[in-house]
Write a structure and sequence with these properties.
mainly beta, five-stranded mixed beta sheet, 48% strand
Length: 987
């Protein structure tokens, strides 16, 4: 026993000696990381001991401290946008590391369809959008980050409504009735919109613009693809980040209306209102508009090692609009997880949940139909908001049937829409060989939508309204199962990559709607207390659709000089006829790096030069219903409560003509591009020319009444083209202690409707004014989409004060035959420019964005300047014609109004979209507290707009995302300017 104890004692002593020896080899290495160009400290650089889980990040002074076990240890320094550095420690104990920017980021890895690729090897037209300033801008939607940032991508917000959808066009409008929105792919998952996504969660954004890059997504990629990658955990110390913003919003441009005296003078000329009051009682603008408040708080926690990485985030956004009662509110949560289970197996999960809610304020209509924006201008200032006699909102506006906007907004508080969305995706990657891997992913995308309305009952003298309410719900579930096999092999100067995969998508949609009326009071606003439930406006519905896809890609790269890529995708859609539902979408692209040729070696100023050419086809089937090729029927309920109808059943009538040969809408596109990097990576330039042709357009065709059992049919007919040129340039104007970088892009696009078959003319945008109810948009072959159609106004006749309408056909009379095209809403070009300046810890950036050559049909002026009834008018009518010989551009009161060029204006504008100033605090105290970033900032949005447009804002389209109607201003919710204070803190 004593011998055993002796041996145990000896073993413990040897173990202690080995431990002491190992401890003696551990030592601390310190240092500082600097920007090679500016000598500034770099904060948040990842410092990792290669091959281990040991590491950290640099502090506010760019300093780091890490334990190493031997002189052979290698430190890896990495930071987004900079070249990764590896340094062998040796006997050094204090290091100074200088990190270099990637220049044009040629080594940057960009996300492409079902894979990634180094930017220098890209053979297609792909634009990257910088995300580094997203946490300093008051961005509600991730789509706003794209505006003016990428050539060939036209982004506008048709309405200033809180939470309003964005309209995005990648290289023009390609479909008439189908969707023109790009396909969004978030972390490999295709989604229809990105309203659920917090901009602070975005790590990178790429836009696949040409058909060769987008064709891998086949039938859903005709309008381009926007690839979004969210943030992931990084190896090193845990990081906690907080972004807090609070801002105020105000109307950017106010339209002044006539005061009471001016209004009385106008009515004396019109004769519609007799003896109106002359005292200004109400400022309707102040009663309706307010200073909005926006709050945005986002927090994230991330960490990782070689085995497991995670990123967790949560956020809350509350935007109160400039119209009282208008709001948008969002809660968001995200969890991105990645685990290396074995050397050959990696699993991951991406979970996103969002809860969006907003309310409905009636805009985009005249004051006679509840439009709040126009009511502010149309209501006389001599009438009150409140009627003291009946103790209710005033509705007596000299006998006019106009809405009281204050009452409308108060009632609008009960009109709410809420959408919750859960996107849960899990994936597993199996690496069979270093060159061969298989990635399988399964995604559930579930969306629940609820919209409720309530108008309270009103019982006062002369008014008996019983109240009404509605409840509309739907649930949409999309399931996606993808399998992608990738092979990549490098030998000598040859690089070969192959990819093959399958994708299965299934969608299930269910909805219900119920309407009721006759409420006792407004204490309870749900339909269980409505006495009458609408028997013919209550029901449920459901539909399904699915797509099965097979796809592949083959890429070859020789010595980084000669590159070629071929893609093919075959899609089958349940929406189309079984004989025509399968479509094949091929593409091919090639690139030649001329700068690598020997004959270019003497050009020291040229860093990189690459010519690209591509061709491909993509499809679109979003413009038709889930059962488009089938015979459909209208169901009409019978009045079962009438005597004799107790057992009646609904009647059915034919709703459409069946299209047995319905197939894909196909867009073919050719692209030629040039990429240049010059002057030691200080200038990066990209140019592209493209030509797109859409054939077999999916159209809703109207037939003459009585021509068949139904008068509409969905069919493939028509062709459309888009061609254009894109130019973007990024420059590093100054380097050193003071830095100044500029990014500029400009885009030219020409759209043309080439051919239609059965129906030769499509009209749109019908006005709902009391005096004009015409269509103002006309689409026909040979012209761009959305052209305004009407009479040409040649100004005001000085002798009569009437508008002079042009006799186009010279027949001596003004008739409908004299109508012609009077405006084009398509811009000649759009552009954007960002300047970023830094000096020491101070940062200043400003973003300019604009559009040139587009027309706007200002239909609002029909209500605010036409002077045809008792509505109040804008102060511009003070310039109206009053006596013979007067020279003016405003006609007399009561002039003959026609749908004419008088209401068409130049919508060109240049806007200072964003101005941001920030400061990075540093110091020992912050370091002691573990704070690696403390950056307060101030941002002004929509600070200045230079335009000749007379309306409230030139960035407008009341018809929203309509492909055939653009540039209509009809009492639209105005845009606002905002001033935001915020802070970024990282621990």
């Amino acid at each position: 026993m004593k011998k055993v104890n002796l041996w145990m004692l000896l073993l413990m002593m040897l173990a202690q000696l080995f431990a002491l020896d190992a401890y003696g080899q551990q030592r601390i290495v310190t240092g500082r990381v600097l920007d090679n160009a500016t000598d500034e400290n770099m904060i948040g650089v990842s410092v990792q001991v290669k091959g281990t889980a040991t590491g950290g990040i640099t502090d506010m002074d760019g300093k780091f401290q890490v334990n190493v076990s031997s002189a052979d240890a290698v430190l890896v320094f990495s930071y987004m946008g900079y070249q990764t550095e590896e340094v062998k420690v040796g006997q050094q104990s204090d290091l100074t590391i200088r990190m270099k920017e990637d220049g044009e980021l040629l080594e940057e890895v960009v996300v492409i369809g079902y894979g990634t690729q180094k930017r220098k090897d890209v053979t297609t037209a792909i634009s990257s959008v910088s995300t580094k300033d997203l946490d300093e801008r008051p961005i509600v939607s991730a789509a706003q980050a794209l505006q003016g940032k990428a050539a060939g991508v036209y982004v506008m917000q048709p309405s200033g409504t809180p939470g309003a959808d964005m309209s995005i066009r990648v290289r023009g409008t390609t479909s008439f009735n189908g969707s023109n929105d790009p396909l969004y792919v978030v972390d490999g998952v295709a989604v229809d919109n990105i309203n659920f996504l917090s901009p602070n969660d975005i790590a990178s954004m790429q836009i696949l613009k040409d058909a060769s890059s987008a064709a891998i997504y086949g039938s859903r990629a005709a309008n381009g693809v926007i690839m979004i990658t969210t943030k992931a955990g990084e190896t090193g110390k845990a990081k906690v980040a907080l972004n807090a913003q609070i801002g105020i919003n105000s109307v950017a441009n106010k339209i002044e209306s006539l005061n009471a005296v001016q209004y009385k003078e106008l009515q004396e000329e019109i004769g519609a209102i007799l003896n109106p009051g002359t005292a200004d009682i109400t400022d309707w603008h102040d009663e309706v508009y307010q200073t909005g408040l926006t709050q945005n708080y986002q927090v994230s926690v991330s960490n990782g090692n070689e085995k497991f990485k995670y990123y967790l985030s949560a956020g809350y956004l509350d935007e109160q609009g400039v119209l009282k009662a208008a709001f948008f509110r969002r809660y968001n949560f995200r969890a991105n997880l990645e685990n290396k289970v074995r050397d050959w197996l990696k699993v991951g999960a991406n979970i996103s949940y969002s809860d969006n809610s907003k309310n409905g304020i009636t805009t985009g209509m005249g004051a006679n139909r509840g439009g709040v924006v126009l009511a502010v201008i149309n209501l006389p200032t001599s009438v009150p908001v409140w009627n003291e006699e009946n103790n209710y909102y005033n509705r007596d506006f000299y006998g006019m049937n106009l809405v009281n906007p204050v009452e409308a907004m108060e009632n609008g508080k009960n009109n709410k829409a809420q959408e919750t969305r859960l996107i849960a995706s899990g994936n597993a990657t199996i690496t069979f060989l270093p060159e061969l891997s298989l990635k399988s992913s399964f995604t559930l995308d579930r969306r629940n939508y609820l919209k409720t309305t309530f108008t309270p009952p009103v019982h006062i003298e002369g008014i008996d309204e019983w109240g009404n309410a509605s409840d509309n719900r739907n649930m949409n579930t999309v399931i996606v199962f993808d399998n992608v096999l990738t092979y990549q092999k490098v030998f000598d100067k040859h690089n070969v990559e192959g990819m093959a995969g399958t994708s299965w998508t299934a969608s299930n949609y269910k909805n219900s709607w119920i309407n009721g009326s006759h409420f006792r009071n407004s204490d309870i606003i749900t339909l269980n207390v409505a006495n009458k439930i609408a028997w013919n406006n209550t029901g449920t519905g459901a539909s399904e659709w699915g797509i099965m896809s097979y796809f592949g890609r083959l890429s070859y790269n020789y010595d980084g000089k000669y590159m070629v890529t071929a893609n093919v995708r075959r899609d089958g859609s349940s929406k189309l006829h079984p004989d025509h539902r399968w479509g094949t979408f091929p593409s091919i692209s090639a690139a030649w790096r001329i700068s690598s040729e020997k004959f270019m070696s003497g050009l020291d100023w040229l860093d990189d030069m690459k010519i690209r050419v591509s061709w491909g086809q993509t499809g679109n089937q979003s413009g038709v219903g889930d059962y488009a090729f089938l015979q459909k029927y209208n169901v009409t309920r019978q009045e079962w409560f009438k005597e004799g109808n107790e057992n009646a059943v609904p009647t059915i009538t034919q709703a459409n003509l069946r299209t047995s040969d319905l197939t894909w809408e196909t867009t073919s596109q050719t692209d030629i591009g040039l990429d240049l990097t010059m002057f030691n990576n200080r200038v990066n330039l990209t140019m592209d020319y493209y030509y797109k042709r859409t054939t077999d357009m999916l159209m809703y065709v109207s037939l003459p009444a009585g021509a068949a059992a139904a008068n509409n049919i969905v069919r493939n007919e028509g062709e459309m083209t888009n061609k254009g040129f894109e130019f973007s340039i990024s420059t590093q104007n100054f380097r050193g202690a003071f830095t100044w970088n500029t990014d500029f892009n400009i885009s030219f696009n020409r759209n043309r409707l080439e051919k239609l078959e059965l129906q030769k003319i499509y009209s749109g945008a019908q006005l709902s004014s009391d005096i004009l109810k015409e269509y103002v948009v006309r689409n026909e072959p040979g012209r761009p989409l959305g052209g305004f159609y009407g009479y040409i106004s040649d100004g005001v006749d000085p002798q009569t004060g009437e508008l002079m309408y042009r006799d186009v056909n010279d027949d001596g009379i003004i008739s409908a035959l004299d109508r012609t095209y009077i405006g084009d809403p398509n811009p000649d070009f759009t552009y954007g420019m960002t300047n970023t300046l830094s000096w020491k810890n101070f940062n200043l950036s400003f973003f300019i964005q604009g559009s040139q050559g587009n027309d706007i049909y200002n239909a609002s002026r029909i209500e605010t300047e036409a002077m045809f009834d008792g509505k109040n008018q804008a102060t511009r009518v003070l310039k109206r014609w009053k006596e013979p010989g007067q020279i003016t551009d405003v006609p007399k009161a009561g002039f003959a109004i026609k749908n004419s060029s008088y209401f068409v204006e130049d919508g060109s504008y240049l806007r200072l979209k964003n101005l941001t100033f920030s400061y990075n605090f540093t110091g020992k105290l912050l370091k002691r507290w573990g704070v690696t970033r403390l950056q307060p900032y101030f941002t002004a949005n929509n600070l200045l707009t230079i335009t000749g447009y007379k309306g409230m804002d030139p960035e407008v389209n009341e018809w929203g995302n309509d492909g055939g109607v653009q540039g209509i201003d009809w009492g639209s919710y105005p845009h606002s300017k905002s001033f935001v204070f915020g802070v970024n803190i990282e621990f």
